[in-house]
Amino acid sequence: MAAALASTHAHWSSRFAFIMAAVGSAVGLGNLWRFPFMTGQNGGSAFVLIYIGCVLLFALPVLMAELAIGRHAQQSAITSTRKMAIEAGKSGKWSIVGWVCTAAGFLVLTTYSVIAGQVMAFSAAGFAGGFAQPDGATMFYGTDGVKMLWHFGFMVLTILVVSRGLKGGIERVATILMPLFFLVLIGLTVYSLINGAAGAALTYLFAPDFSAVTGQTFIAALGQAFFSVSVASAIMITYGSYLPRDSNIGSSSVLIVSADTLVALIAGLMIFPIVFMVGMDPAAGLGLIFTALPQVFSTMPAGNFIGGAFFALAFIAALTSSISLLEATVAFVEENASFGRSMTAWLLGGFAFMIGAGAVYSEAFAGGFVDVLSGQILLPLGGFLVAVFAGWVIPKSLMRTELSHASPGLFAFFHFAVRYIVPVAIGSILVLGLDDRFNAGRLGAMVGLG
Ligand code: PFF
Question: Which residue from 37, 55, 170, 228 has its CB within 8 A of the most atoms of ligand 1, so it is best to mutate?
Answer without folding.
Answer: 228
